[in-house]
Every structure is written in structure tokens, then in C-alpha cells.
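User: Could you go from structure to sequence for me? I need the amino acid at each position, not a summary. C-alpha cells:
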């Protein structure tokens, strides 16, 4: 026989204070938004070093016997191409993760996903998702200004204040 799950009304654990919710939302938005321009900058500046395993694969393509390859030659070329792409993708991922310019913002970004997961378990879903995603947008704009020196236009500033106003309306509609 199964016992029913306790309802949220009988849950003895107190709800966190509003300051903790705001801090949680801000941390998720900051972790997602502010790190994205730094991840992008590191990926743009990335120049992969040569790898012997990739060079061996590239140097040994399958032979073809005529201008019109046979079905088995097409399969050999397809598997060679696929193997080359998989090995190149593997080494690119390894080299990017070895780069602190890429790995540190990525870890912070992924930490934001863990915080988001924890928030979803406790906070109201209809507030958590729009607030964290909106804050991520705002922090992405600020991150682009910081990481890439992009100028924030007047229209973008107006849009950012509209987003903040939208967040305030969402919160107000749940409280009122």
C-alpha cells in the first residue's frame, strides 16, 4: 500500500525569504547571461593545435579507382569522412575544455543550470522561468559590453528597462 505524498500545505519546512528568491534569480541570470559572451569570445579566438591522430586520418583517404566511384568506394569515403569529423570534434572539445578562457565561463554557466534546477523545485514555475531568462538576456547585453566592448544603444537600454518592467508585472500579478 502506498502512502500519499504530503501536500505543500503540511510541509514543515519554511519558505525562503523573498531576498533569497531574488538572489537565486539574479545568480542564475548572471551565470547564464554574463558568461555567454565570454564563452563566445573564447570560441572565436580559439585556434586548435594540430593532432597527430587527425593528421594521420586526413593523410590517408581511401583510394578511388575511377571518376565514377563504386558503391563500396562511396561507403569507404563516407566512413573516412565521418571518422575524420568525429576525431576533429573530439579534439576540438578537448582543446576548448583545456582552455581556461573557455572552461571557466562554461563551468560557471553550467553551475547556473544547477541553481536553476534547484529553484524550479522550490519556486513557482510561472515566475522562475521568465525571470531567469529575462535576467539572462539583460546580463548577456552587459556581458557583451564588458567582453567585447559593444556599445549599448539607446533602443537596447529602453528594451532592457521594458524587460525589467515585465518582470515587475509578472511578480506583481502573482502577489496581487
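Assistant: Here is the amino acid at each position, in order:
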Amino acid at each position: 500500500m502506498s502512502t500519499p505524498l504530503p501536500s505543500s500545505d503540511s510541509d514543515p519546512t519554511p519558505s525562503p525569504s523573498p531576498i533569497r528568491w531574488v538572489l537565486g534569480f539574479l545568480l542564475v541570470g548572471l551565470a547564464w547571461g554574463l558568461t555567454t559572451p565570454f564563452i563566445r569570445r573564447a570560441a572565436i579566438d580559439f585556434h586548435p593545435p594540430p593532432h597527430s591522430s587527425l593528421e594521420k586520418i586526413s593523410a590517408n583517404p581511401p583510394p578511388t579507382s575511377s571518376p565514377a566511384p563504386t558503391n563500396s568506394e562511396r561507403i569507404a569515403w563516407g566512413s573516412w569522412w565521418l571518422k575524420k569529423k568525429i576525431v576533429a570534434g573530439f579534439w576540438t572539445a578537448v582543446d576548448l575544455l583545456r582552455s581556461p578562457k573557455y572552461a571557466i565561463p562554461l563551468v560557471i554557466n553550467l553551475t547556473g543550470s544547477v541553481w536553476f534546477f534547484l529553484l524550479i523545485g522550490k519556486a513557482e514555475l510561472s515566475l522562475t522561468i521568465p525571470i531567469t531568462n529575462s535576467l539572462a538576456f539583460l546580463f548577456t547585453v552587459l556581458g557583451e559590453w564588458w567582453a567585447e566592448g559593444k556599445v549599448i544603444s539607446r533602443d537596447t537600454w529602453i528594451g532592457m528597462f521594458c524587460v525589467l518592467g515585465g518582470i515587475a508585472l509578472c511578480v506583481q500579478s502573482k502577489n496581487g
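One structural detail worth keeping in mind: The radius of gyration is 25 Å.
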